[in-house]
Amino acid sequence: MILKILSITWQLPQNILGYLLFLIMHKHRITGTRWSVKTNFNFDFCLGVFCFYGKYFYKQLTSYVNGYKKYSLLTGPLYLFVIFIPSIIWNTLIWKQTNLPKSWFYTEKRNT
After folding, report:
1. Are 46 and 52 in contact (CB under 8 A)?
2. Containing H/E element for 70?
3. CA 45, 81, 83 angle in degrees (round to 5)?
4. Is the pLDDT score of 30 beyond 70?
5. 112 near 64, Cβ under 8 Å?
6. Of 43, 37, 72, the residue nearest 56 (C-alpha)
7. pLDDT at 110
8. 36-38 vs 45-47, strand pairing mode
9. Cβ pair 66, 44 in contact under 8 A
10. DSSP at 29
11. Which are the contacts of 72, defined by CB distance < 8 A and separation ≥ 6?
């Protein structure tokens, strides 16, 4: 219980943002999960304990999204600036315009 409280506190910025997004999108909650939501985005991401799966959600993506959960635990309050924002920029603006594999970017390497 103490570790859970420490974990939530360590990841507080992303948990707050994740909770706000979860409240907005809670109608699309994935059956059998507590904090997972299906979105209309073209990518998947986690914000603390909250997971958001894109339109192309597959069961095997769970391990991919768990990589973001690990990043969140490792980087704590820096996660939004070091992992989340660069990953969103890579996935939405840059990746499709290059010939590089998705896993080339540092935020995606641990997840593949």
Report:
1. yes
2. helix 61-75
3. 40
4. no
5. yes
6. 43
7. 64
8. unpaired
9. no
10. B
11. 11, 14, 46, 47, 48, 79, 83
Residue ranges of domains in the chain: 2-109
**The residue type at 100:** L
**Where does the pLDDT of residue 49 fall: very low under 50, low under 70, confident under 90, or very high at 90 and above?**
confident
Helix (H) or strand (E) segment spanning residue 25: helix 12-25
d(CA 61, CA 43): 10
pLDDT tens sequence across 61-87: 566 667 777 888 888 999 899 988 888
CA 58, CA 73: separation in Å to the nearest integer?
24
pTM of the predicted protein model: 0.73
All residues at 6 or more sequence positions from 38 whose CB lies less than 8 Å from its CB, including other chains: 28, 29, 30, 52, 53, 54, 55, 57
Lowest model confidence (mean pLDDT) among 3-12, 28-37, 44-53, 91-100 = 28-37
